[in-house]
UniProtKB/TrEMBL annotation:
<feature type="domain" description="Ig-like">
    <location>
        <begin position="1"/>
        <end position="113"/>
    </location>
</feature>
<dbReference type="InterPro" id="IPR013162">
    <property type="entry name" value="CD80_C2-set"/>
</dbReference>
<keyword id="KW-0812">Transmembrane</keyword>
<feature type="domain" description="Ig-like">
    <location>
        <begin position="330"/>
        <end position="408"/>
    </location>
</feature>
<feature type="domain" description="Ig-like">
    <location>
        <begin position="118"/>
        <end position="215"/>
    </location>
</feature>
<dbReference type="Pfam" id="PF13927">
    <property type="entry name" value="Ig_3"/>
</dbReference>
<keyword id="KW-0472">Membrane</keyword>
<dbReference type="InterPro" id="IPR013106">
    <property type="entry name" value="Ig_V-set"/>
</dbReference>
<dbReference type="GO" id="GO:0016020">
    <property type="term" value="C:membrane"/>
</dbReference>
<keyword id="KW-1015">Disulfide bond</keyword>
<dbReference type="InterPro" id="IPR003599">
    <property type="entry name" value="Ig_sub"/>
</dbReference>
<feature type="domain" description="Ig-like">
    <location>
        <begin position="224"/>
        <end position="302"/>
    </location>
</feature>
<protein>
    <recommendedName>
        <fullName>Ig-like domain-containing protein</fullName>
    </recommendedName>
</protein>
<dbReference type="InterPro" id="IPR036179">
    <property type="entry name" value="Ig-like_dom_sf"/>
</dbReference>
<dbReference type="Pfam" id="PF08205">
    <property type="entry name" value="C2-set_2"/>
</dbReference>
<dbReference type="InterPro" id="IPR003598">
    <property type="entry name" value="Ig_sub2"/>
</dbReference>
<dbReference type="InterPro" id="IPR013783">
    <property type="entry name" value="Ig-like_fold"/>
</dbReference>
Length: 421
């Protein structure tokens, strides 16, 4: 009577597999161990144990089947046939028969399926071009990612799926032609948070080995997120040199920073990259009195992201000593002033901060308000009533603010006698 045990096993092409053929009695009770394939009546491997007492068991492997790729380990428990470098044509039904000296023959039958692994996945862009390297992009915010994973070969038919950061997002694939399987992924409207996301095409047709994968890291061009002038001074002193720092974050690659005064670009700058998305720019300049009230603009832009930039404005408060000038009243004719005429001067002042005190001088002597002498100061005007010859001479005015005092140029007053022609 024949005792037979039947098993189904899977092996992977190119790997090793062991088919067990347990021997449950002492080897002295074993006569022969024979391996057959399919319905062949001739063994492809044999172990002769009939004369083990005087010599080692005799092994034979059919060279046209396994040859040196197979080895039966009779001393192992359980005994097994090791098949190295499995070939796809090794698939079939194998039978191990153990003939004993005194007990019934035992048979172990294996239905061996050989798994043929698929090729390494390749990834194509939306135009069907192969994507080289390990980067996807660079893309911009709002773009769609459209990529196709293509896998050739494999038995049984492999699964093809997309993972993002290790999470399956698309496992719908279709057979293209022949043994080619494709999975087209549409990942719409990518965001800043998708930067450095890992897109992985994975294929597998067995759990005996790890899936084959091809991965890409998403690269993105990002617009600046912030821009600001760092601790700008509340006031600037005219003609003193300053270094003003502007900082931008969030741009990839780092932002390019430009400075403008009004519409004119400022060139004397020094840029520094602090980290992968922070850039500073230091502007060195000496403001003039004409810059008071004007606006400095710091602009950050990523030239790889069309039309998108950030900017911040800073209105300058430039302080300076008064700028003073004196002028004879516009209704007067400088060469036609006679004794008894009324004369007035105007003192024109431009200052930041505003002037606090205004003074008048006659021949470098400070003039005081004197109603009886008919010298009247009113606002920024000096009025001389009914001038005399003694009123002639050099007049000047001065203005004082927190930045200092400035005296105007002198204006000469000539007074004619009434009888002068």
């Amino acid at each position: 009577m024949l005792i037979e045990y039947v098993f189904s096993v899977e092996g992977v092409e190119g790997r090793n597999i062991e088919l067990q053929c347990p021997i449950t009695v002492p080897l002295s009770q074993v006569y022969m161990v024979l391996w057959f394939k399919d319905n062949a009546g001739i063994p492809l491997y044999s172990v002769d144990v009939r004369d083990k007492i005087s010599r080692q068991p005799a092994h034979w492997s059919a060279p046209e089947v396994f040859g040196s790729r197979a080895k039966f380990n009779i001393d192992k428990s359980p005994a097994s046939l090791l098949i190295k470098n499995l070939k796809r044509h090794d698939q079939g039904v194998y039978r191990c028969r153990i003939d004993f000296r005194t007990i019934q023959t035992q048979t172990y039958r294996y239905n061996l399926s050989v798994i043929v692994l698929p090729e390494q996945p390749v990834v194509l862009d939306r135009w069907g071009r192969h994507i080289n390297g390990t980067k996807l992009g660079p893309k911009e915010e709002g773009d769609d990612v459209v990529i196709t994973c293509r896998v050739s070969g494999g038995r049984p038919q492999p699964e093809v799926r997309w993972l993002i950061n290790g999470v399956i997002v698309d496992d719908q694939y279709e057979q293209n032609s022949g043994d080619v399987i494709e999975n087209r992924l549409l990942w719409p409207t990518i965001q800043r948070s998708d930067l450095n996301a890992i897109f992985t095409c994975q294929t597998m047709n067995t759990k005996l080995v790890e899936p084959k994968e091809t991965s890409y890291v998403l690269d993105m061009h990002l617009k600046p997120l912030t821009i600001k002038v760092i601790n700008p001074p509340s006031t600037l002193v005219a003609d003193k040199r300053y270094e003003i720092v502007c900082q931008s974050t969030g741009s990839r690659p780092n932002a390019i920073i430009t400075w403008y005064k009004g519409k004119r670009q400022m060139r004397r700058t020094k840029d520094e990259i602090l980290d992968h998305n922070t850039t500073t720019s230091a502007l060195s300049f000496a403001p003039t009195t004409e810059d008071d009230g004007k606006t400095l603009t710091c602009r950050a832009e990523n030239p790889n992201v069309n039309g998108l930039f950030l900017e911040t404005d800073w209105k300058m408060n430039v302080v300076y000593p008064p700028m003073v000038s004196i002028q004879l009243g516009p209704t007067l004719v400088v060469d036609d002033i006679k004794e008894g005429d009324d004369v007035y001067f105007e003192c024109h002042v431009r200052a930041n901060p505003d002037w606090k005190k205004l003074q008048w001088f006659h021949n470098d002597i400070l003039l005081q308000y004197n109603g009886s002498a008919r010298i009247i100061q009113s606002g920024q005007s000096l009025v001389l009533q009914k001038v005399t010859k003694q009123s002639a001479g050099y007049y000047a005015c001065s203005a004082i603010n927190a930045e200092g005092e400035t005296v105007s140029d002198q204006q000469y007053l000539r007074v004619k006698r009434k009888c002068e022609v």
